[in-house]
Amino acid sequence: MAKFKPGEPIVTEEPFILVDAGLKPGRYVFQLVVVDDEGNESAPDRVQIVVSDRQSVTPTIIVDPTLPTRPTRPIIDTPTPGR
After folding, report:
1. pLDDT (tens digit, 0 to 9) for every residue of the chain, 83 residues total?
2. Which of 18, 26, 59, 63 sits CB 3.0–4.6 Å from 1 for a disulfide?
3. Residues near 43 by Cβ (< 8 Å), separated by ≥ 6?
4. What is the pTM assigned to this prediction?
Protein backbone atom coordinates (compact mmCIF):
# COMPACT_ATOMS: atom_id res chain seq x y z
CA MET A 1 0.00 0.00 0.00
CA ALA A 2 1.40 3.37 -1.01
CA LYS A 3 2.07 5.98 1.65
CA PHE A 4 1.08 9.27 0.03
CA LYS A 5 3.01 12.36 1.10
CA PRO A 6 2.42 15.79 -0.49
CA GLY A 7 5.02 16.58 -3.14
CA GLU A 8 6.57 13.09 -3.20
CA PRO A 9 6.11 11.03 -6.38
CA ILE A 10 5.22 7.36 -6.25
CA VAL A 11 6.77 5.28 -9.02
CA THR A 12 5.36 1.85 -9.87
CA GLU A 13 5.23 -0.54 -12.81
CA GLU A 14 1.84 -1.88 -11.71
CA PRO A 15 -1.31 -0.68 -13.53
CA PHE A 16 -2.97 0.14 -10.19
CA ILE A 17 -2.13 1.55 -6.79
CA LEU A 18 -3.70 0.97 -3.39
CA VAL A 19 -4.43 4.20 -1.57
CA ASP A 20 -3.20 4.70 1.98
CA ALA A 21 -6.09 5.20 4.38
CA GLY A 22 -3.95 7.47 6.58
CA LEU A 23 -4.41 10.75 4.71
CA LYS A 24 -5.49 13.58 6.98
CA PRO A 25 -8.78 15.35 6.20
CA GLY A 26 -8.36 18.01 3.55
CA ARG A 27 -8.14 18.63 -0.22
CA TYR A 28 -5.55 16.79 -2.28
CA VAL A 29 -4.55 16.93 -5.95
CA PHE A 30 -3.32 13.69 -7.48
CA GLN A 31 -1.35 13.84 -10.72
CA LEU A 32 -0.71 10.85 -12.99
CA VAL A 33 2.01 10.68 -15.63
CA VAL A 34 2.35 7.45 -17.61
CA VAL A 35 5.67 6.42 -19.17
CA ASP A 36 5.72 3.82 -21.97
CA ASP A 37 8.47 1.25 -22.69
CA GLU A 38 10.24 3.78 -24.95
CA GLY A 39 10.42 6.35 -22.14
CA ASN A 40 7.75 8.65 -23.59
CA GLU A 41 5.78 10.50 -20.92
CA SER A 42 2.08 11.27 -21.18
CA ALA A 43 0.66 14.66 -20.43
CA PRO A 44 -0.15 14.90 -16.71
CA ASP A 45 -3.71 14.16 -15.68
CA ARG A 46 -4.87 15.72 -12.41
CA VAL A 47 -7.80 15.03 -10.12
CA GLN A 48 -8.76 16.77 -6.89
CA ILE A 49 -10.18 14.74 -4.02
CA VAL A 50 -11.48 15.64 -0.57
CA VAL A 51 -10.75 13.43 2.42
CA SER A 52 -13.41 14.04 5.05
CA ASP A 53 -13.29 13.37 8.77
CA ARG A 54 -15.42 10.34 9.55
CA GLN A 55 -15.67 11.41 13.18
CA SER A 56 -17.72 14.48 12.27
CA VAL A 57 -20.65 12.68 10.68
CA THR A 58 -24.13 13.62 11.82
CA PRO A 59 -25.07 11.49 14.83
CA THR A 60 -28.05 9.22 14.62
CA ILE A 61 -30.82 9.23 17.19
CA ILE A 62 -31.76 5.99 18.88
CA VAL A 63 -35.53 5.85 19.10
CA ASP A 64 -37.55 3.82 21.58
CA PRO A 65 -38.94 0.92 19.48
CA THR A 66 -42.15 0.90 21.53
CA LEU A 67 -43.14 4.34 20.23
CA PRO A 68 -45.59 4.47 17.32
CA THR A 69 -43.96 4.68 13.90
CA ARG A 70 -46.72 6.71 12.25
CA PRO A 71 -47.99 10.13 13.31
CA THR A 72 -50.76 10.14 15.90
CA ARG A 73 -53.27 12.86 16.65
CA PRO A 74 -52.79 14.48 20.03
CA ILE A 75 -55.61 14.21 22.54
CA ILE A 76 -56.47 17.65 23.84
CA ASP A 77 -58.57 17.71 26.97
CA THR A 78 -60.72 20.83 26.93
CA PRO A 79 -62.14 21.59 30.37
CA THR A 80 -65.92 21.72 30.48
CA PRO A 81 -67.30 24.79 32.30
CA GLY A 82 -68.72 23.94 35.68
CA ARG A 83 -66.62 20.85 36.28
Report:
1. 677 777 888 888 887 787 766 788 888 888 888 888 899 999 999 988 888 877 766 666 776 767 666 666 666 666 666 65
2. 18
3. 33
4. 0.50
> Taking the CA atoms of the chain, what radius of gyration do you get in angstroms?
29
Q: DSSP of 8-57, one letter per residue? A: -----SSS--PPPTTPPSEEEEEEE--B-TT-PBPPPEEEEEEE--GGGS
Closest to 19 (Cα-Cα) out of 4, 37, 41: 4
Distance between CA atoms of 57 and 41, rounded to whole angstroms? 41
Type of residue found at 26: G
